[in-house]
Design brief:
- 55% of the residues are buried.
- The protein has a single domain, classed as Alpha/Beta hydrolase fold, catalytic domain (Rossmann fold), CATH 3.40.50.1820.
- The protein is built from eleven helices and eight strands.
- Strands 1-2-4-3-5-6-7-8 form an eight-stranded mixed sheet, sandwiched between helices.
- The chain is α/β, with parallel strands linked by helices and 305 residues long.
- α4 links the parallel β5 and β6.
Length: 305
């Protein structure tokens, strides 16, 4: 048990809660390839030269494009390989680092909108044209802003464990925020996975530690992201107040036991986006999409069509 917690603590502290520092730099880079690898562990980190500066990314699979946007403090190494590879069975999946993480340039400002604009520039640089987008946590905020400000680039929207930016969402509960910042690995895991889902937490950690040079955001980048999230939740980021104008088919999902994002926020978001569909997974938390990947991924596939 101690060995499991040690491995879990290393990954979660480096990634999900970001309570230790890291270089924030992946081990390799390359120019774009003509054909994507069939699994993400074989995919090198590549650099897209965008209007907003360099963006580190990986591409895997073939088919219609699906862009995955990760959350606070995370790098693209926080997507479990099995999760990415299953989606890549039917899509060209692109994972990338948000502003200021890894080899991605910092954004023009500390805002969700600035990160969304940089994501738009990545879509243009990779000639994805109109892509499906899946955003997790802070990544879901970025995905909303992207769909509001750059609707021609988004075909369908999947928002996982995230909040509306209307200023009406409940804040992150103080106790959960404290647990997320805790140096205790068990406390961090408990924020992402319910107490009876230890095997799912262990599987997640085992998966992300398969990446050869696991890395996360720097302290400065995390501070910038925190400010952006606060502004979004307070309704101070313009696209967040405009989600009622979205006309992109939208799927919203979360776990019923998400300690960082109360279920009331999921219902508020679903009510704010015209025609949105909401799925709530019982006995699941903020990392529901990995815990319940066996049912969530098929739901995503059906939604994407």
């Amino acid at each position: 048990m101690k060995r499991v917690l040690a491995a879990s603590g290393l990954a979660m502290i480096l990634a999900a809660c970001g309570t230790t520092s890291s270089s924030g730099t992946p081990s390799s880079s390359a120019t774009p390839a003509t054909q994507a690898p069939v699994n993400v562990l074989a995919a090198p980190t590549r650099i897209a030269h965008t209007a907003a500066g360099p963006v580190g990314y990986r591409e895997v699979g073939a088919g219609s494009p699906l862009l995955l946007i990760t959350g606070f403090s995370a790098s693209m190494d926080d997507w479990p390989p099995s999760f990415v590879d299953t989606l890549a069975d039917h899509h060209k999946v692109i994972v990338f680092d948000n502003a200021g993480v890894g080899q991605t340039a910092p954004a023009a400002s500390s805002s969700i909108t600035a990160m969304a604009d940089q994501t738009s520039d990545l879509i243009s640089a990779l000639h994805l044209h109109r892509s499906a987008v899946l955003g997790w946590s802070m990544g879901g905020m970025i995905a909303q802003a992207l769909a509001v400000d750059h609707p021609a680039q988004v075909s369908r929207l999947v928002l996982a464990a995230t909040q509306a930016g209307t200023g009406k969402a409940l804040p992150v509960p103080a106790q959960a925020a404290a647990q997320l910042a805790s140096p205790n690995p068990a406390s961090v895991l408990a924020v992402l996975f319910p107490s009876d889902q230890a095997s799912a937490a262990s599987a997640y950690v085992t998966g992300i530690l398969q990446y050869p040079s696991f890395y996360a955001a720097t302290a400065a980048t995390k501070a910038s992201q925190s400010l952006a999230i606060q502004q979004w939740l307070a309704g101070q980021d313009p696209p967040g107040r405009q989600i009622g104008k979205l006309r992109v088919p939208t799927l919203i999902a979360d776990g019923t036991l998400d300690q960082l994002d109360p279920t009331a926020n999921d219902r508020l978001l679903a009510a704010s986006v015209p025609g949105a569909r909401l799925i709530l997974y019982p006995d699941a938390g903020h990392a529901f999409l990995f815990q319940d990947a066996s049912s969530f991924i098929p739901a995503v596939e059906r939604f994407l069509g």
